[in-house]
Each structure stands twice: as structure tokens, then as C-alpha cells.
Amino acid sequence: MLVQKKPGIALLLATAAALVACGGGGGGGSSSTTTTSSTSSTSSSTAASSASTSSNASATATLVGSLGATGWATYGTGTTGGNSATAAKTYTVSTRAQLIQALYGNSATINADGSIASGSLDSSAKIIYVSGEISLNTNKAGTELTADDYLTYANAASSTCASYGYTTTAALWAAYYAAYTPSVWGNSTAVSGTPESARVCAANIQKKVVRLSIPSHTSIIGLGSNAKIVHGQLLLDGGSSTSVVSNIVIRNISFEDAFDFFPQWDPTDSTTGRWNSAYDNISVNYATNVWIDHNTFSDGSRIDHDYPSVWTDSGWTGSDFKVQHHDGLLDITKAANYVTASYNHFHDHDKSMLIGSTETASTTAENPSVLKVTLHHNYFQNLKQRQPLVRYGVVHLFNNYFTGDMSSSANYPWSVAWSQAQGAKLYVENNVVQLSNGTPTGANVYKGSSGSKTAACVTTTSTSTEYCSAYAWHVGNILNENALDAGGAVTGVTTTNVTVSSTPWYAINATTGAPTAKPSDFYTYTPEATSNLATTIPASAGAGKL
After folding, report:
1. Model pTM greater than 0.85?
2. Which of 23, 71, 325, 404 lies in the 20 to 30 Å Cα band around 163?
3. CA 344 to centroid of chain Cα atoms
4. For bias kind Low complexity, which ranges apply (predicted)?
5. Rounded CA gap, 70 and 516, in Å?
């Protein structure tokens, strides 16, 4: 099925731009102009459905623009997404198949199981308006898929997968739990054998369905207040540090429940073992100049609390061993650079945001020269940790609002807000943290520890100890209506190998000596006072708030 196109949209957008500035602040970036479209679209032989199929979609909603990026996303070439798209490259989509065709310039062929058989991602400027709810967990016919469906598809596609003998996921998991229970398998080696191989078969089919790659020069924008993408992952990843995607804008969409039917038990993770899942709502890996604004992220109705440990062995029954079906909400890793996340609502999740996925530096992935990220005016609500966790990143957090519940009985009991690890360089100003059911201290908000990989980083990057080390500056932050910091440091928190400095960033191309730069050396911004953030941020952050 070809994706519906909106004739005359260029004129509409020009009119909208003339009427309203497309800023990234609360309420900015929208127009009072509304559109209704009911245009027929004929599919080609490579499209998702037959050539005789017509698409008639209608949407009446406030237009949101692609312009107004702030922070690191403005650096270098800037971030405008598909703002220059022609009418032919401006789409309204309401199904997964339509979204795929918009991303692929109507060149995709979709298999019966929902995986993409062929086609080329379209890197020309495009605007994709999302109307209503789209599930990424559907087959070609648009049917919502189950775990058993993926196992069936895997067995049909591969005689090797079929030979493992599992026809239901209930049987697969019964064998998996029996084989890898800690008292049987131990925790010194990764799992292997028939149940794990069968799990991988089904997991690989799910990955081909629920993970969609986003090409350069793309804007994905929700129409109105109810645009939603559920049960899958948007992947911003060009594949390598020399082949990045760039200039991507994602605004005004609720992202919910990127559910992994086939998480893996890793006995070696954290020394005692953990369940690991594969999907973030959005992953920004090999990508530059990205603006993620006014979106909402959560686990939806399938919360982690509902999936407790399956192990009965003593010592493996606690909350650390719950079966993890969700990974991050928004993860920014590898060689991602010049990213801004603003006015988003992140809520009800465990590991919320990761900036840098490893402490081992690489010239082609995580290292001190990349992962430049700005987080401002976001609402972090009912989250456990990683708000964010930063490795190597050059990160600016300002005017964010954090709320959480310290009670162990909470669905997502609070652990910590932002954490600083190997080589991270943080500038943290005028944020507000409000915690209930406890007596929080600075240690409940910030953790800083770096240094174990510094020497290896110096060798790998051919730079300096200072460049590979961690620096931080905290100023004007509030915890439960009291000052969180003094003299640039969080009060009462002891860090390891983190240097307090009011200029914790390096100038571009500088790699030696102490850092000498701060956010205002790279972009213009004005931090707000903290007094009203508890009111203004919940009112303005998230989808439907433009």
C-alpha cells in the first residue's frame, strides 16, 4: 500500500510557518491551521498490498513544524529534519505498513510475517505525520502478533529452528527455566544449548518486525494529541561512525511498551545474573543532529512489576531478577552526536536513558569526542534509574523536573537520577527533584564514579588522561525544596575520579590539558529559575502539549 500523500501540503506548511514560530518551548512549534485530507493512493508491485488497494485517510489536527531545535542539536549543520520536503515527500500514516513505505519512499516489499523483504530507505527530505495509534508489532495484514506467532514464523522459515522441537512459547520457556536456573547452570558462563538457540530463532523474527530504521532528513511528527507508536522501536543508526544518519526530528508522539517477548537470561551480568531485553522505544546510535521534542515515553500497561523473578533458588528471587521485557526509553550510544531531548515526558520505567553503552573507548563508537547531548525541560516521573546514566558523554542537563517514590513497594521504586561514569562530562543546572516516602539526600540523586578505563581510553584515542577523565559542575539544583549543591558539587556525595570544574567541557578539537569550556560556548540558552518548574514542566512536557 502506498502511503497517503497530502497535495498542497507545502502551501499549508508555508502558511503555518508564517502564522506561528516553530519553537521548541512549551506550546511552541505549532499552528492553528488544520487540514483534512482524503486522497486516494495506488500501490505499486513492491508495496505492502495489492496494486488495486486505495488508501483514504483523514486527519484534522494542529500542524507541528520541524524547526526550533535547541541545545546541541543546533550545532554544526543544525537540525531541521524534513523541513524542506516537497508535497510528494509529505505523508500522513496511520498503519505500520504506511509508515514503512514513507520511510522507504514507497519501495518496500513486506513479507507476510511483517518483516521487510526488500527496499531502500529514502534519505531525501520527508515529513511523516502520524495519525492515531500505530503498532509496530504487526504482520503484513496488520494483525497484532503474539510470542507464539513469532515462534511459528521462525519454525516455518528455518528447518534448524523447527528442529529444536518447540511449537509453543510455554514449552520453550519451561525448558529454558529448567536448563538455566542458577542452581543448575551457575553464573560463570553465558547460556547456550537448545532452549537458548530456540529463543534466538524467535527473537530474530521479532527484531525484523518491531524495529524500524529511520533515514536522514526525516521529520516524524504526531498529528493532534493522540498520535502514538507502540510495541516497537525506532532505530536511528547509519551502521558505523563513517556512515551515520543525520538531521532527524521526532515530535509530539507517545512511545509506549517496546516489549521484548524473548528476553535473554545472562548469568554473568552484574555477577549474579540479569534478564536483558533488546528494545528501546528510540535508539540513537550512529546518528548526528537529532531533535526529540514533546514526546511521551513509558512501558504502557505491561509494567515490569508484573514480571517477577521466575527463579526459585535462594538469592535469585528479588526484584533485581525480574524478567526484563523493556530496555531503555531513549538510549543514545555509539557515535551519536549533537542530540537534544526537550520537553519530553518520561514515566513509569526502570532503566530510562543511557548515554554511552560501554566504558571501553573506541575510535568508532563511544569516546570523549562524541555523545554531545542536551536535556532540558523534560519531566522524569516514576522512574527507577538512568535519568540518565552517562559514559563519555558531554551532557548538559538544565531545567528538568524529576519526581519519584522511594518506597520499595512502588512499581518503579526510585534509585537515582543522573549517574556519571567513565569519562563523562556533565554540566547540571537549575533542575528540580521531588521525592516522596523517604528522606532523600544527594546520594539519592547523583552518583559519580570514573577511572577504571581511563588509561585504556588514552591509548585507544591517542589523547590525554584529562580528556578521558570525568568532570562535572552542578549549580542551582533543588532537592525537595532545598539546595542540592554547593561550590559546583552535590552536597554529601563522594565521587571517584570526578573533577569539579565550572568549565567541564573541552573546546572543539582540544584533547589535552584541563577543559576550558561550558554550554554557552557552543549554543545560546537561558536557564529558567527553579521556582515554577514543578508547575510549568508537567503542564508543557510530553505529547499533545504543543
Report:
1. yes
2. 325
3. 11
4. 31-52
5. 22
**What distance in Å separates the CA atoms of residue 384 and residue 293, rounded to the nearest whole number?**
22
CB count in 10 Å sphere of residue 127: 29
Instruction: Give the pLDDT of residue 62.
Output: 62
Helices 194-210 and 169-180 meet at what angle, rounded to 10?
A: 130
In contact, 372 and 338? CB cutoff 8 Å:
yes
Per-residue b/e over 189-215, b at no fewer than 16 CB within 10 Å? eebeeebbebbebbbbbbbbbbbbbbb
Instruction: Give the pLDDT confidence of 323-352 residue by residue, as tens digits.
Output: 999 999 999 999 999 999 999 999 999 999
pLDDT value, residue 304: 87
| Residues 288, 203, 121: CA angle, nearest 5 degrees | 35
Instruction: List the catalytic residue out of 96, 199, 251, 386.
Output: 386
Half-sphere exposure of 438 (CA within 13 A, CB side): 21
Residues 536/330/328/451 CA torsion (nearest 10 deg): -100
Question: What pLDDT does 305 receive?
Answer: 87
Of the candidates 383, 328, 393, the residue with the CA atom closest to the CA atom of residue 355:
393
The stretches in the chain having pLDDT less than 50 are 1-24, 26-59
